[in-house]
Write a structure and sequence with these properties.
The complex is a heterotetramer, with 2 copies of chain A and 2 copies of chain B. Chain A has 6 helices and 3 strands, in the order αβββααααα. Chain A is an alpha+beta fold. Chain A has a single domain, classed as Alpha-Beta Complex (Sufe protein. Chain: A). A 3-stranded antiparallel beta sheet of chain A has the order 1-2-3, with helices on one face. In chain A, helix 1 packs across helix 2. Chain A starts with 10 loop residues before the first helix and ends in a 6-residue tail after the last helix. The longest helix of chain A has 24 residues. Helices cover 46% and strands 18% of the residues of chain A. Chain A is globular, with a radius of gyration of 17 Å. By secondary structure, chain B is an alpha/beta fold. In chain B, the strands form 3 sheets. Chain B has a 7-stranded mixed beta sheet with strand order 2-8-7-6-5-3-4, with helices on both faces. In chain B, helix 5 links the parallel strand 3 and strand 4. In chain B, helix 3 runs parallel beside helix 9, helix 4 packs parallel to helix 5 and helix 11 packs across helix 14. The chains are: A alpha+beta, B alpha/beta. Chains A and B meet through helix 1, strand 2, strand 3, helix 2 and helix 6 of A and helix 1, helix 11, helix 12 and helix 13 of B. Bound molecules: pyridoxal-5'-phosphate (2 copies) and FE2/S2 (inorganic) cluster (2 copies). The site of one FE2/S2 (inorganic) cluster (FES) has 8 residues of chain A, from helix 2. Chains A, D: This is Nitrogen-fixing NifU domain protein. Chains A, D: GO terms for molecular function: iron ion binding; iron-sulfur cluster binding. Chains A, D: It holds the Pfam family NifU_N. Chains A, D: InterPro entries: NIF_FeS_clus_asmbl_NifU_N.
C-alpha cells in the first residue's frame, strides 16, 4: 500500500488510546527499559515483572509509559497485553507486524511506533538476562532487525534531523 | 475494506461529541450560511459561462467577478481591478508570484530572499524554480519570536537580489512582520527589487494598504476568512510581468488559466463583506477570546511555552502553545474525542515525521515543537466555546502526561 | 462608473428573456440542486480541516475525499485510489500531466507529441516547458473531421518520443479519437512512451477504461458533467513520476499542493453518480436532442456547414455549425437576446482576434470559422428547449444575414 | 485602461445592434465603398447619396451593411446616423474615438470595429471626389492614420494570420 495516502487509525487504536491497559510505573519491576527519545518525538518505557517458574521465565506483570502519538500509546499498551503471562522466549518472537495487526492495521507512516514497542520489549528481555548473568540459546547474540532500527532511530535522530533540515531548508540561526 | 469505509468505522467509534469547538482555522475554516447563500445563485439559477463569453449568462458571471475584484481592490488600496488576479488557492497565488516572477525573468538570474518561516508554498516554488532556472535562494533567519532583524536583513539584500517574499503574518506563530520597514531597506539597496508578501493570514485581520506597505505583490486566500475554498488572490502591481507556471490561456488574458470559479468568488465576496463590516468588533472579539483562552490555559496547565510574540505584534486570532512532556498528535486526538479541534506542529502529524520548520526556525527544540498546538479564534466563537476549551484542555493534558514516559525533572 | 456597474447596465438593458436555453456547456455547466445539496454539509455543518489532520472534522473530510476517489477510480477502471489526483480544474490536471512529466524528466530531453486540436491547456504547457527544459514539441495534424490518421501518426512517433498527449474527445467539434489504436502504435515503437489523454469532454459521456485504452494519464473535469467548478482530476498510473509545476507540499504528499476543495469534491461525487445512473438513458437523450437540433437547423437554414464528424465517432452531446455570411459573436449576442446561450469559435470572441485553432486545423477557412457556433446538449435539456432553439435560430440568422455585407454569390 | 480585462458592451451598443438604423443597400447611392474582408471576420459597406447644395457636398442619405460582431454592426449604424445631413468635410473629420464615444465607449478589443467604420467612410469620400474629378483642399493627399490602419488590416490579414498561426501553433496540414 502506498504511503501517498494518509490512512486513518483503526477503531482499535482509538479505543486503546482512550482506555490504555497496564498503564504506569510498576513498583516491583524486574526490568525497566525504554526505546526512543524525546527528541524523536516518541519514547516507550516498559516495566516488566518476571518470575522464573519451572525453569521458564514468565512475565507476571507488564506496564508501560509512552510519549508519542496515539498509535504509539496504543502499541505500547497492546504489547503489554500480548506479553502478560507469557514466557520471555514467546515474547522475544513478537514482531512489529503482529502488533500492527493486533491494532487493526497501522497506517504505514505509523509502523515505526510498533517497531519502537518491539524494540523496547527486546531491550527489556536482554536487560533481564544480562542482570541475571545468563544467555539462553534462543536469544540471538547479534542485534536483530527491530533492535537495530530502534538504535538507528535513536542514533540517527541527529543525522536524520540534519538531513531533514536540509530538505526543509531550516537554517540554523547565527 | 475500502479506505472510506475504514474512516467511517473510525468516525463511528469516535462518535459526535455533544459540544464541539473548532479552532483549526489555519487548515480550513467553516463557511457560514450567508456565504453559502451568496454562492447558490451562481450554481443553481442557471448555467454560468466564463467572463469573456458574450451572452447574458456570461455577463452575469462577469458582474460578480468584477464586483469581487472591485471589493478586494478597494480593501487593499489597489489602483485598479487589473491588479487583482484570481487563482484557486493561496498556495497557487504564492506560486504565481514566485514561480511566475522567476519564469518571466528567467534570463536574469540573481538572488531570491525568503524568510525561514514562510509558508511552504513560498519556500518550495522559490527553491524549485530557482534550481531549474539558475537563481539562488537565501532564507533569512528570524529571532525567537519570528521577527526578522532589520540589521540582519540589510546584510542579506544586495544588488543581485531580484525578488523578496516575506509574509505579513506567520500562519503558525502569528508574528506580524514589519513589512514597510523591510520594503524600505530592500528598495533602498535596489529599487528594482520586486517585493511579495504572503498576506493569507493577515487579510481580514488587520488593515492592509499595498501602497502604504510598498509591496509589489500580495497573496490572499478565501478560506482563511470563512470564505469557501477554491479562491486565492494575487495582487500584482501594474507593470510587474509574470509568466504563470500554469499554461492554457493566451497571454493577453488573465494570468491563471481555466474558468473562474464564479460561485466561490461570489462566496468570497460575501465573506469579505462579513469580515470588514464591524471590522473592529470582529478583531477585538477574536483577540479577547484568544487572550482568554491563553490565560485559561496558562493558569491551569503547568509547563507550557507560548510560541511566537506576545502583544500587539501578534495576529489577533493566533495562539500557539507547546505543552511539554506530551506529544501534539496525541493531544489533537484526545481533544477531538472531546469535540475540540486543533492542529499540531508535531513531527507525528507531518508526513515526513519532522516538526514544523517554523518552530525549529524560532529555536524551539524538537521536544518543544512536538507538543505544540495551534488554536485560531474567530468572530464566530463564543465565550462559552472558550470556557469549554479551558475546561477540557487541562484534563486532556493531565491524562496524556499521566501516560507519558517523560516527566518534569 | 465601475466595471461591475457597467455590466449591470448592460444586463438591465438586455433583460431576462422569458424562455432560456443554455447550450454553452463547453465553457461551463450549471450545477443541479442535488449536487449543491451534496456540497452543503461540507460548508455548513462545521469547519472542515484538510484530510491529513487527526481529528473528527478532518476525518469526515477524508471520508468524502476517499469516497470520491473510490468512485472515480472504479468508474475508469483505475487500480487504486492512489492513482487519482485532485487538482482545481481540468486545465490544472492537464498542466500537472504535461508540465509534471517534463519537469520530472528534465534530464531526459526528447520529443513530445500532441495533436493540433488539443485544448490549449495541453498545447501551451507542452510548448512552454519544452522550451525551458529543452524538449521538442510536435503537433500531429488531423484530417477534415479532426481525426488523426494512424499512418501519419506512425510517421511522427519515434524512439526519441517521451510523452504523447491526445485528447479522447475534442471539445469543439466532438471528434472521438481512437485512443487505443494510437496507444498501440506509440507503445510498439517505444514501450516507455508515456501516453496522456485529456478526457475532460469524454468522461461521463462514454465508457472509459484506462486499462483497455492503455493510457498512463488521463484528465477529467468536474464542471463538464454538471459538477461544481473547482475540481479537476488527473489519473496517474502507478509508477509514473511527476513533479508538479505547483509547489508547496512535501513530496511524499499529494501531487497538487494546497487544501483539497472538500465541498466541491463532495459535489463532484454526486455529479458522477447522477451521470452514471441511467447512463444509457442520459447518453441517448443528449444524442437524440443533439440530432434533433441539427436536423432542425439544417432543415431551416441554408448555407451551413457541420464542423467535425457525423455519426458514431462524434461525441453524443456536441453540435458545431458554421453559419456562412454571418459572424459568430454577433450570433451569440443575437441568440442571447432571445435566451439562447452558445459560444463561437469566431475571431471576434477571442482575445487575439484569431479564430479557433481547432477549426483552422480541420481546414476551415477563416470566413467559415468566423460563423461557427457550438451547442452542447445535456440530459437536462427538454424537447421543448430544442423546439424553442429551432424556432429562434433561423430567425436570428436571417436577421443577421439581412444586415451582412457578404451575400451568397 | 488595460486590455487584460474584457470590458463588456455598453447598453447603447446592444440597443443599436438590436435596432440598427439605416440598414441595407441604397438604390440610388452616389458611392458604395467597403472596408475589411470576410477573412478578417469584419467588413463594413457604406452607401452614400451625396448632393451638392450651394457648393457644399451634403450626405443626403447613408446606409450600411455589416459583417462582423455586434460592435461592428453598431459602429456602422451609428456612423450613418452621425453623417446624415452633414457635409463631406465634416464627415471626413469624424474620428474612430468619436464613434466609440457615441457608442458609450467600446471595449479596447473592439476599437478596430470603429476604425473600420471610419475607414469605410473616408474611402467613400475619396471615391466620391475621384468620381467627380475634384480634390478639395481639405482632403489630405496622403492616406491618414485610420485609412492606413484599415489598409493594413486588409493587407496584413494574411501576414497577421500567419504570425498568429505561429503563436497559436496551427500547422498547415501536409
Ligand atoms: C501564510 C499562508 N500562506 C499560504 C497559505 C496557503 O493558502 P491555501 O490554503 O489557500 O492554499 C496558507 C494557508 O494554509 C497560509 O497560512
Ligand atoms: C478537452 C478539454 N480539456 C481541458 C479543459 C479544461 O478544463 P477546465 O475548464 O476544468 O479547466 C476543457 C474545458 O474547458 C476541455 O474541454
Ligand atoms: S510517535 Fe510519532 S508517529 Fe507515532
Ligand atoms: S468585427 Fe471582429 S471584433 Fe468586431
Amino acid at each position: 500500500m502506498s504511503t501517498r495516502i494518509p490512512l486513518p487509525y483503526s477503531p482499535k487504536v482509538l479505543e486503546i488510546f482512550r482506555n490504555p491497559k497496564n498503564l504506569g510505573p510498576l513498583e516491583n519491576a524486574t526490568v525497566v527499559e525504554s526505546a526512543g527519545s524525546p527528541a524523536c518525538g516518541d519514547m516507550i518505557k516498559l516495566y516488566l515483572r518476571i518470575e522464573r517458574i519451572d525453569n521458564i521465565d514468565v512475565i507476571k506483570e507488564a506496564t508501560f509509559e509512552s510519549y508519542g502519538c496515539a498509535a504509539n500509546i496504543a502499541a505500547a499498551s497492546i504489547v503489554t497485553e500480548m506479553i502478560k503471562g507469557k514466557d520471555l522466549r514467546y515474547a522475544w518472537n513478537i514482531t512489529w507486524k503482529q502488533i500492527s495487526d493486533e491494532l487493526g492495521g497501522l497506517p504505514p507512516i505509523k509502523y515505526h511506533c510498533s517497531i519502537l514497542a518491539v524494540g523496547a520489549l527486546k531491550r527489556a528481555i536482554r536487560a533481564y538476562y544480562k542482570k541475571i548473568g545468563e544467555h539462553p540459546e534462543w536469544l540471538p547474540k547479534e542485534l536483530v532487525q527491530e533492535e537495530k532500527l530502534v538504535l538507528e532511530e535513536e542514533e540517527m535522530i541527529e543525522r536524520y534531523h540534519k538531513s531533514m533540515k536540509e530538505v526543509m531548508g531550516v537554517v540554523d540561526r547565527k | 475494506m475500502s479506505f472510506s469505509k475504514k474512516i467511517r468505522e473510525l468516525l463511528d467509534h469516535h462518535g459526535k461529541p455533544s459540544k464541539e469547538v473548532y479552532f483549526d482555522l489555519e487548515n480550513s475554516g467553516w463557511v457560514p450560511p450567508e456565504v453559502v447563500e451568496a454562492m447558490k445563485p451562481y450554481y443553481n439559477v442557471y448555467g454560468y459561462g466564463h467572463p469573456s463569453i458574450t451572452h447574458r449568462i456570461g455577463w452575469e458571471a462577469l458582474e460578480v467577478v468584477y464586483e469581487a475584484k472591485e471589493l478586494i481592490a478597494s480593501s487593499i488600496g489597489a489602483k485598479s481591478i487589473d491588479e487583482i488576479v484570481f487563482t484557486h488557492s493561496g498556495t497557487e497565488a504564492n506560486n504565481l508570484a514566485i514561480a511566475g516572477y522567476l519564469l518571466a525573468n528567467r534570463n536574469k538570474r540573481g538572488k531570491v530572499i525568503v524568510s525561514s518561516i514562510e509558508h511552504l508554498s513560498v519556500i518550495f516554488p522559490a527553491e524549485f524554480y530557482a534550481n531549474i532556472l539558475g537563481f539562488k535562494v537565501i532564507r533569512v533567519p528570524v529571532n525567537g519570536e519570528g521577527f526578522i532583524d532589520p540589521e540582519i536583513f540589510k546584510y542579506y539584500v544586495d544588488r543581485d537580489t531580484v525578488l523578496i517574499s516575506i509574509q505579513m503574518v506567520n500562519h503558525e506563530i502569528g508574528t506580524v512582520q514589519n513589512i514597510r520597514e523591510l520594503v524600505d531597506i530592500a528598495k533602498s539597496v535596489n529599487p528594482n527589487i520586486v517585493f511579495h508578501t504572503d498576506a493569507a493570514d493577515a487579510y481580514g485581520k488587520m488593515a492592509i494598504d499595498v501602497n502604504k506597505l510598498g509591496v509589489d505583490m500580495m497573496t490572499i486566500s478565501s478560506h482563511k476568512i470563512h470564505g469557501p475554498r477554491g479562491v486565492g488572490v494575487l495582487y500584482v502591481r501594474e507593470g510587474i510581468n509574470l509568466e504563470s507556471p500554469i499554461r492554457g490561456q493566451l497571454s493577453v488574458e488573465k494570468l491563471w488559466p481555466g474558468v473562474e470559479n464564479v460561485p466561490a468568488i461570489a462566496g468570497f465576496k460575501k465573506a469579505i463583506e462579513l469580515a470588514f463590516n464591524d471590522f473592529d468588533y470582529n478583531i477585538n472579539h477574536m483577540k479577547r477570546l484568544r487572550d482568554k483562552l491563553m490565560k485559561g490555559i496558562m493558569d491551569n496547565v503547568d509547563d507550557v511555552l507560548i510560541n511566537g510574540p506576545i502583544g500587539d505584534r501578534r495576529a489577533p486570532d493566533n495562539l500557539n502553545i507547546s505543552f511539554l512532556y506530551v506529544e501534539g498528535e496525541a493531544i489533537t486526538v484526545e481533544l477531538s474525542l472531546h469535540g475540540i479541534y486543533v492542529s499540531s506542529g508535531s513531527a507525528c502529524t507531518s508526513r515526513v515525521l519532522e516538526p514544523s520548520h517554523v518552530l525549529l526556525a524560532i529555536g524551539r527544540k524538537h521536544e518543544e515543537a512536538h507538543g505544540s498546538i495551534l488554536f485560531k479564534t474567530s468572530r464566530y466563537h463564543s465565550e462559552d466555546d472558550i470556557d469549554y476549551a479551558i475546561e477540557i484542555i487541562p484534563k486532556a493534558i493531565d491524562r496524556l502526561r499521566s501516560i507519558s514516559s517523560i516527566k518534569p525533572n
